[in-house]
Amino acid sequence: xxxxxxxxxxxxxxxxxxxxxxxxxxxxxxxxxxxxxxxxxxxxxxxxxxxxxxxxxxxxxxxxxxxxxxxxxxxxxxxxxxxxxxxxxxxxxxxxxxxxxxxxxxxxxxxxxxxxxxxxxxxxxxxxxxxxxxxxxxxxxxxxxxxxxxxxxxxxxxxxxxxxxxxxxxxxxxxxxxxxxxxxxxxxxxxxxxxxxxxxxxxxxxxxxxxxxxxxxxxxxxxxxxxxxxxxxxxxxxxxxxxx
Length: 244
Known about the structure:
The mean pLDDT is 92. This protein has 244 residues and is an all-alpha fold. Helix content is 74%, strand content 0%. The chain starts with a helix and ends with a helix. It is built from 13 helices and no strands. It is elongated and about 85 Å long. GO terms for molecular function: 7S RNA binding; ribosome binding. Its main location: cytoplasm. This is Signal recognition particle subunit SRP72.
């Protein structure tokens, strides 16, 4: 067997290991296998992609950015770069990466990421429009999470005093009810906000108790609701009740 044939056989064996490691979520091992393949042939794009995925799964975001700076992948890595910048709390850089990529229209994964970036940048109007577009055109297991995120954006728009016309959103979970309450508080409708916050706390307790959460976990989760409730009570002059 020639030297070239030996190398190809080794690469095939490493890919077999890499596929198994990736399927099992063994990202440290997968990273090592990908590196071995790239050491034998730097043009192996599948190994390069697996290396990026493994680094991201291991939260080695700075390493991903350094790798992308010195490598020229054959496929577009806008998402990987922007995602790592976002996770490193560099939303401005992540926004710039997507804007300057020239990718039009944005694929679903970049749309979702851009919505999170816009929220971090407190660009709530553009963020709301993007979430509305995503929800309208996407139907999968993450619909409820997107609706919750959009309701949080709507609450922030109300706090800002935005004149944007907002649709009525669902209130069938404690998170959605909480966000609706925050929107009312933003409009200084404190009695109505108080009612929804009490409903949110009740729904939260019921949901977590059914889920088998400990009392400590429940208290941690309702803490933010209680803080907002205390604020609404304070604004209504119910200082004694607010400090209870």
